[in-house]
Amino acid sequence: KNQVEQSPQSLIILEGKNCTLQCNYTVSPFSNLRWYKQDTGRGPVSLTIMTFSENTKSNGRYTATLDADTKQSSLHITASQLSDSASYICVVRRGSSNTGKLIFGQGTTLQVKP
Amino acid sequence: NAGVTQTPKFQVLKTGQSMTLQCAQDMNHEYMSWYRQDPGMGLRLIHYSVGAGITDQGEVPNGYNVSRSTTEDFPLRLLSAAPSQTSVYFCASSYSTGTPYNEQFFGPGTRLTVL
Cβ of A99 under 8 Å from any chain B Cβ? Predict the structure, then answer.
């Protein structure tokens, strides 16, 4: 079954600390993996997109890793800020076309406290 | 560019009422889609379109209709609202050709409550 599982479900950290969010998937065939940030009451916004051949991709303080062999990805947030408080969603595109089905994880809710 | 816009932001319906959720994009994207987001679940695809005049069903299409008469607009119609359709609805758009890095842009969402 094509699934995307994220952990932890929720996380609370202090401002300035680092954190890592996990994503495991069983989607096949794999096209690419995306991380989105969704602020409360807003639509998801793309952070990174990685294909099969990419291991690491950064976007400012956000660094995503991908291990296509073990079907695992992580999103590392460095020096967290209050504005990082949001839900982070891992999404895997299935198939080889650019309109292949997107399979969404349930998201990890991150709260950054001062 | 305004990106992807959705109206209304909030809506309360009674069971059995019908309504249309509006979605528009100004990026000339071929691909548009509707998702619903429920607590504890990932976004689920309702309907999608790969271009004007072409629509297809997603994962949870029952109770919803769509049409795509122009590239810019992709309205979602609830035929006879049910409490199970209480959800947050997101419209999204992207290019359908090109590289795997085609980014999908989401609208701000419509929060619908069916009583």
Answer: yes
- Within 3-32 of A, beta carbons closer than 8 Å to B belong to 4, 31-32
pLDDT digits (tens, 9 = 90+) for A3-21: 999 999 999 999 999 999 9
Q: What is the pLDDT of residues A103-112, one digit of tens each?
A: 999 999 999 9
Contacts of A101 in chain B (CB under 8 A): 45
How far is residue A26's CA from residue A73's CA, in Å, rounded to a whole number? 12
The answer on pLDDT for A27 being more than 80 is yes
